[in-house]
Amino acid sequence: MKALGSSGWKGPVKFRMPTAENLVPIRLDIQSEGQRYKDAFTWNPSDPDNEVVVFAKRTVKDLKLPSAFITQIAQSIQSQLSDFRAYEGQDMYTGEKIIPIKLDLRVNHTLIKDQFLWDLNNFESDPEEFARTLCKDLGVEDPEVGPAVAFAIREQLYEIATQSVASAKESRLSKKSRRGSDHGSASKASGLSMDLVKLFSFKSSVVRKRKDLDVYEPVVDLLTSEEVDALEAREERHAR
Amino acid sequence: MEAIDSSAELELYTIPAQSSWFLWDDIHEIERREFEEFFSESSITRTPKVYKEYRDFIINKFREDTSRRLTFTSIRKFLVGDVNLLQKVFLFLDKWGLINFSPSLNDNDTLSSVDNAKVEQGTPAGIRVTATPNSLRPITAPPLVEQRTVSGVKLPPLTSYSDVFSDSKKPDDVLLCGHCAERCDSAFYQHNKSIVNICEKCFKNGSYGGENNAADDFKLVGDSAAALWTEEETLLLLESVLKHGDDWELIAQSVSTKSRLDCISKLIELPFGEFLMGSTSGRLSSAVPTEDEDTEQVKTDVQEHEETETREENEDEDGPPAKRKRVALISDSDSSLMKQVATMASKVGPSVATAAAKAAIAALCDEASCPKEIFDTGDYTDSTVDRADGDKDTEMEEQREEKDGPQGLPVALRIRASVATALGAAAAQAKILADQEEREMEDLAATVIDQQLKKVQSKLKFLDQLELIMDAEEEVIEGGKETILQERISVLQCAFRSGVTKRWDHTYVK
């Protein structure tokens, strides 16, 4: 651990999305007057706030939803944005945090399962680029898959980042002297971080072991319409 | 554009030349610059060792099957680490051509975005295809096939030579006289300041049209009639050159429509024209009348090149002319060899070629132990028979086969003779070139020595001048010394006269 302390320590950085572009994942799920609107997209928090209402209005118009949705949509977006902004002033430790990101999502007829490692400290990371490459390499034709994948990645990153802020606050409160990197901060990461030390040392190789290969391999399934319907019905039941 | 890089398994992989800096055992400067994060010791997950492992793994993975395009997703599962970083390494290797460099693999990107490959047939707009009258066959521009895929190989032009001189002439530009609005068929006069052209007739009539009144303002431009050479005229020209050699008056007469200068310029323009002129000027008038007629038959051979050169060798060899003739009419499969022989024979002078031929024949005959006389078939009967047969190659072959019987001159032997001649000619040429080189070297050495001598001489001159100057100065100084002495004496005298003390004297007495 001592060796790590000298090489790996990074000071806290201000909270932001640890990606090249600071975009917030916004999820909407609004039900009203018998209609349900579910959506997920990324929003640029530096956009002026009036844009939210404009967006809500346009969405309602495009999807021909009842106008009651406008305010609900706008409200939902605003609250999520303000949550995000609440975190913004605070510190987070991103040190040596390489986390596994899991994908398990269905977009129309395409089912994707995947797992890979993401470095929280890499502020040049680009979920959209990753999603593009994934879809291109796997030959996914549905253009909605890429953005969905990117969104899923962003959501997870967002969550980890907020956790990191929380734990940073907590550690400051408890006045623990933090020497070295924050391997203990996120519980999820700590286990992996230990492995990291072992993995990236001189003795071992960064080539993954055979037993882990299946886990980290992307799997894409194309579903038939019946399967899609069945799955959707099951999801509805779970939601209720 | 390919460099050979041998991998550890001692198999040869070809990689693009721009990535030849890559070494398995080392990390190159380019890589260090690109991936500073690995080398700055800022984190345990990014070390040079890690980078090297990533890189080597990806390249090896690609080389397992170089024909398929390696995708990032397929290798990402194998490597532990931030996927963004891995992608960066992957893209870096792709960009530098260390992976996915085969031409066939690059289609994927383009095909996905552009569905059809653009195929252009025919000539692109920039090239104008005209059958220039100077050549016996039209020059066709190659059909350019442009595709989005990489090949981009341009087919070489179909002509055997490129007609450089025809570009300057534009035979298909129709010039209209500015005044009478008729075509300027032959010469036309161009005004110096404006772009008005008037035809000859108008110029002679003095009607220049409009404000262009001064006759001086017009200059005669181009003689378009004289510029056009039809096939017959070219042929006539060549024949007359062969017949008359340097006598341009006679040539101009035989080629009736062209003036002397035109003939000369045309001959120069023809690709072999200079050879012709050189060979004819050195030629003795051993021109046999039949040879001209032979040229008529020979002209129906495949290409103009060959034809003229065989004609040349007909002229050039004073030796066994008839043998040459028949050799020239050998069937097509040998024509390339003959062409080579012809080229070589034409390059060296006639006497050298004959000497080579004679020597070759002698050697062959010694080998084959057959008398040399069989090669001396210089009889007119052959040529008359040949002539009578007209232009068909097949008939020529028959002739030749007939001749085989009585002459006992097998084709193989003739071929060997010609090959030996060619080799002899080539050897002579080589010797000449070598001698030339030697002379040149000696020349250069002499020049260098000259220069050195000149340098030394100028230095000597300089020193001489210096010496003169020194001498002059010495004299001046001597003079100065004298005057000083004089002055001293006078001072002493004055001192004596005025009765100066002894002490003072002492100081001045040396």
From TrEMBL, chain A:
Query: Tell me, what's a Pfam family for it?
Result: SNF5
Q: Which UniProt keywords apply?
A: Nucleus, Transcription, Transcription regulation
Top-rank taxon of the source lineage equals Eukaryota
Q: Where does this polypeptide localize?
A: Nucleus
The text of the family note is:
Belongs to the SNF5 family.
Recorded protein name is Chromatin structure-remodeling complex protein BSH
Automatic annotation (TrEMBL), chain B:
Compositionally biased residues, Basic and acidic residues: 296-305, 384-393
Q: Tell me which SUPFAM superfamilies the record gives.
A: Homeodomain-like
The cross-references to InterPro entries, in alphabetical order and at most eight, read: Homeodomain-like_sf (IPR009057), SANT/Myb (IPR001005), SANT_dom (IPR017884), SMARCC_C (IPR032451), SWIRM (IPR007526), WH-like_DNA-bd_sf (IPR036388)
Q: PANTHER family recorded for this chain?
A: SWI/SNF COMPLEX-RELATED, SWI_SNF COMPLEX SUBUNIT SWI3A
Q: Where is the Myb-like domain?
A: 229-263
Q: Where is this region: Disordered?
A: 283-324, 381-406
**Protein name in the entry:** SWI/SNF complex subunit SWI3A
